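Box 3.1 A note on notation
Throughout this textbook, protein chains are presented in two layers. The first layer is the amino acid sequence; the second is a token string describing backbone geometry. Keep the layers aligned when reading.
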Amino acid sequence: MTDPALDAEALRERAVASLITARDRTTLLTSCVEEPDLTAQHSPLMSPLVWDLAHIGNQEEQWLLRTVAGHEAIRPEIDGLYDAFEHPRSERPSLPLLPPEEARRYAADVRGRALDVLEGAAFHGTRLTEAGFAFGMIAQHEQQHDETMLITHQLRRGPQALTAPDPEPVPLFTGPSEVLVPGGPFTMGTSDEPWALDNERPAHRREVAPFRIDTTPVTNAAYQAFIEDGGYDEPRWWTAEGWSHIRRNSVTAPLFWRRDGRQWLRRRFGVTEVVPPDEPVLHVCWYEADAYARWAGRRLPSEAEWEKAARYDPSGDRSMRYPWGDADPGPEHANLGQRHLRPAPAGSYPAGESPLGVRQLIGDVWEWTSSDFLPYPGFRAFPYKEYSEVFFGPEYKVLRGGSFAVDPVACRGTFRNWDLPIRRQIFSGFRTARSEDV
């Protein structure tokens, strides 16, 4: 029998490590530029970086200090300023936001008190404290905003502010282009992953017909073939909404790409470079992914298909936490955690391959699916409706798998992301599928 004290200490260590890792990344993202870049709005789609910084602290205060520990509010007068639903991103620069140094002091003060709370926390008693869920939720929340801030850095104009080593080069992938996923039921979602968020729950059986899915995400070279074949000029590949969108906004290539003679260039975190042919394509919206799939005679996988490809182990007829098994992600498994500032070449990370032979399902690029963002059977909002429930519906499409900008704490085989089908500033790519003839 496992000693409960040992379990609690392991949970405490995991929570501390997750919170520290998130704060180290937040510090990097907000200390690599000068104050004018922190307070500026680099795109109407994004908040000023200084808003994200104080919002991170405010959420931590509200949940860990006030709700879990029952402490008095430190700065109750700023709650409204940092309520993501009260003020759309386009309006946030006009708010009386905390200046950078004050925002840093506030977030640091909250963190010091939160670590004190964690030191004495009991990981039982309520659903919020069970297995340290509240601490895991806050670590995930901060990492999600870190990814958002990294998107802002990509949108930011000016000299390079962030650096990271490139992924290890790998030989050109010459394996099979697609993999057969057998038909039949599998367990989708989770009921026992301690830090899984509400939209990942509950676990339920889902029937999936046999299908074939790309072994790797669609590459830049493959996507360039779509462009060169006139893909953006041929309405038959596009939904009516997608065709209207790209015409209205003059979309002719992935975001940040531009043609230079016979080659394509892209801007990546302040550096202009030739588009690497063997990397997964990045910064495409759902409409573009869907059009490419139609052009290729294929389709986007459904969310259930994607998850079965990523988690199903036919040898044990079970669903695993990750494509490679139940172990937490390591650097050999996937490109995660802003370790690099780009996707790894297609075919990388053979240690992260699924039992069916599919690669790079976790990390590198978020992958668009064909599915609308909807609740699972038996869904219950927890701990607040504004995380998932208010977004359910046909307006949002599901993305799966994470990207190089996602930390492992916020990425699982069951993790669900969602966005509007027009969004391209996110680190989004895709892979395609086709139904198996039976």
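The mean pLDDT is 96. Residues 212 and 342 are 27 Å apart (CA to CA).
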